[in-house]
Design brief:
2 copies of one chain form a homodimer. Chain A is mostly helical. Chain A has 10 helices and no strands. In chain A, helix 9 packs antiparallel against helix 10. The interface between A and B is large, with 40 and 40 residues. The structure holds a DNA duplex.
DNA sequence: ACCGATAAATGCAGCGATTGCAACTATGCT
DNA sequence: AGCATAGTTGCAATCGCTGCATTTATCGGT
C-alpha cells in the first residue's frame, strides 16, 4: 500500500510530469506540432527517456486506457453464469462510464485532443479493438465455447464497443455536459431490445 | 467509357503495378520489413513518386476502401423513407458483402496482411470510423433530424459497423471459407431482434 | 557509511516514413 | 512544332522511434 521506494515514487512523478506537460503543449500548440524533443525539454528529461514511459507519442493522451480494459474484463470474469451475457456486459461497461463521470474534466481534455488528432484517434481505435478481442475472449470462456466456433461473443463485444463509442461520441459532441452513464444505459437497452421495433 | 488518354492509362497502370508489387512483397517479407524504397524499385518508379499514388504505405493494402463507403452511402441515400433505417442499413452493407464474395481471393490477401500488421489494421479502423460518421450523417439527413440532437443515427451506424466487423473477423478466422453475406445477415438480424432474448 | 547488484537515464547513431520544393520530362492540344 | 499542363524525379530536411553502450541513481545487505 505504501509508495514503495524512492525509485518507484520518482518514476511515477516523472510519468505524471510528462503527461501534464505534454497535454498542456498539445492543447496549446497542437499534437503534431509538439515534438518529443519539446516534451522532453519541458518535462526535464532526455528525449530518449520519453520512450521508457510511453511507447508512442499518442499513448500519452490515451494513458490509462489499459486500466479501463482490465476493469471491464475483470467485472466480466465475475459475471454469474445464469445472467445473460449482454446484461453482464452492460454492467461492466457502465462501471467504467461511472468513472468517466467522476474524472470528467480530466478525460474531457484528453478526448478533445483525441477528437482533433487523427493519429491519436486511430491509436484509440486500435486499443479499442484490443478490448473487443479481450472481451470476446472472456465471453467465449465464460460460455464454455470453442474459440472460433460461435460468432456470438464477437458480435456481443463489437456491439458493446459500438454502444460505448456512440455514447461517447454523442456526449463529446454535446461538450461533455450530459450524464454519460444514462446515455450508455440507453444505448445498451436499445441494443438489448432490438434496433427495428425500437 | 474509354481509357481516356495515354496519360490516364499510364497512371492507372502504375497504380496497379505498385499495388501488385507491394502486396507480393508484403506477403513474402512482411509489411514493416518492406520499405517504400523496395516497393519503388520493384515498381520501377522513384521513391518520391509512391506518395503521388498513396498517402501512406498502409493505404496500398486498403485501396478501394473509399469506393466501398461510397457504395454504402449511395445505397442509403436511395432508401425509401417508409422503410426502417436498420433495414436500409442491412441492405446497403449486404450489397458490399456480396462484392466481398466475388472478389474473395483478392480481398483475402489484403485482409491477411491487415490482420498480421497492427499499423494497417489501425489505418483500416480509422477509415471505418470515417464510414461511421458518414453513415450516421446520411441517416440524420434522411430522417430529417438535427445534427447533434438524437443519438440514434450514431448508434445505428456504430452497430452496423460492429455487425460488419464481427462478421468479417469471424469469416477471416475461418480462413474465408464460409459465405460472408449469410454471416452478415445473421448479425444484422440479431441486432434487429435484440441481444438478450437471442 | 560502504559495496555490489540492479534499475533507470542518457547520449549517440541510424532507419524509415513522410513532406516541401524545385527542376525536369512526358502528354495534350492547337 | 510549341506552349500549357500534369506527372516524375531528386534533394534535403523533419520527426518518430529503436538498438546499443555508457553513466548515474537507488536498493539491499554488510
Amino acid at each position: 500500500m505504501k509508495s514503495q521506494g524512492l525509485r518507484e515514487r520518482k518514476k511515477l512523478d516523472t510519468r505524471r510530469r510528462i503527461e501534464a506537460v505534454a497535454l498542456d503543449m498539445f492543447e496549446r500548440g497542437g499534437f503534431e506540432t509538439t515534438t518529443i524533443e519539446d516534451i522532453a525539454a519541458a518535462a526535464d528529461i532526455a528525449p530518449r527517456t520519453f520512450f521508457h514511459y510511453f511507447p508512442t507519442k499518442e499513448d500519452v493522451v490515451l494513458a490509462d486506457y489499459a486500466d479501463r480494459l482490465a476493469r471491464i474484463t475483470g467485472a466480466l470474469a465475475e459475471w454469474p453464469t445464469d445472467e445473460p451475457a449482454w446484461t453482464a456486459l452492460q454492467r461492466a461497461f457502465l462501471s467504467v462510464a461511472a468513472d468517466y463521470e467522476i474524472e470528467r474534466p480530466r478525460l474531457l481534455r484528453r478526448f478533445r485532443i483525441m477528437a482533433a488528432t487523427p493519429s491519436v484517434y486511430a491509436r484509440s481505435l486500435q486499443l479499442q479493438a484490443g478490448w473487443e478481442d479481450a472481451v470476446a475472449s472472456v465471453l467465449t470462456q465464460r460460455a464454455g465455447l470453442v474459440a472460433g466456433g460461435d460468432i456470438t461473443p464477437r458480435l456481443l463485444a463489437a456491439a458493446a464497443l459500438a454502444a460505448m463509442r456512440a455514447s461517447l461520441g454523442h456526449w463529446l459532441a454535446a461538450g461533455g455536459k450530459g450524464p454519460l452513464p444514462a446515455q450508455l444505459t440507453d444505448c445498451f437497452d436499445r441494443l438489448a431490445r432490438g434496433l427495428v421495433a425500437g
